[in-house]
Write the structure tokens for this entry.
Amino acid sequence: MWLCTVRPDGTSHVAPVWFVHLRDRWWIGSDERAVKVRNIRRTPRISL
């Protein structure tokens, strides 16, 4: 699966992610220092 987040300049950042989908929830693993995590903390709009 691919996760798309928004960079500070408004462009998209697309990254492959490992995930688990269980009971209508998505669990995605990542390092807390990853670009995608920083993007989500700043702008929580994403696309899978």
